[in-house]
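Today's session is about reading a structure prediction critically. Students often jump straight to the picture, but the first step is always the sequence itself: look for stretches that repeat, for charged clusters, for runs of hydrophobic residues. Only then move on to the predicted structure, which in these notes is written as discrete structure tokens rather than atom positions. Here is the chain we will use throughout the hour.
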Amino acid sequence: MQHGKFLRASGRFPLHCSRPTSTTYSVFSELLSQLLRPNGRAGVVVPTGIATDATNQAFFTELVASGRLVSLYDFENREAIFPGVHRSYKFSLLTLRGKGVNGQSQKEAAEPPHFAFFLTRADQLRDERRRFALSAEDFALLNPNTRTCPIFRTRQDAELTKAIYRRVPVLVNEATSENPWGVRFMQGLFNMSTDSHLFRTRAELEREGFRLVGNRFVRDGQVWLPLYEAKMIWHYDHRYGTYAGVGDRSSTQLPTPSDAEHADPAFVVLPWYWVPADEVHTRLADWDRAWLLGFRDVTNATNERTAIFSLLPAVEVGTTIRCSCC
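Below is the predicted structure for this chain, in token form.
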């Protein structure tokens, strides 16, 4: 608690003062940047979150905008560079420069910072295919909303992504309020905590006399719809995971239906919870299409795919998946 008070009130950490949850490495990185001589440099080993986490957004944006960021080389500890640290841990070599001499801004004097990601050995820094430069303008192009660091495995990936973004606008630009795709976001139709009073399990509904038809429960004109969760979907597949035969909801990975079940257009997956159809229709009252685009938003940066999207039947499901409408 005292740490948080000092962080917010001391004036020593203006780029983290509004972030009471900032980690120790974040504020010490900011302190290091303040202590540099005008023509000095400093290197430090810090978690890669210094460039990618929302809590460090203001600090990292300032480093890039002022031209003080020299390089950031990201490593995954897969080959045990640090033997006592978990193999999936990610850290970076962060190099900073001072504010410049005789009033000359570093932004004018310095070349764009250099980056490399997912390195596992120091000698990989010599591989020019894995190193690339990003200017402040590139950050504004690729991540206009957060200005955090985009992650690319190769120089080719970075150049290809920049070429795409020069031709195709971002989904929503919060700085300019541009929304060329006409997208609206919803944090799921239902919140697993605040809406839990609406949820019913299969056993509860069957005790109340409801009958399972497909993956809906019905009784005397009342209908309860399946509540989709993120673990139930995958790319192009809203029938990826099912609770059928699962006795414990704590499982983070559900059984996947067989190829024969996937080939059957009438096959449906079963959830753990159901929600009232009237409540679903009320929350989708201004949505006139029969589908939603949902995506899983929790993953690890070390996963091959960090964004999983799937179309969902809007009129048939409740969902705790983040959704967009366009």
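Discussion point for the tutorial: The radius of gyration is 24 Å.
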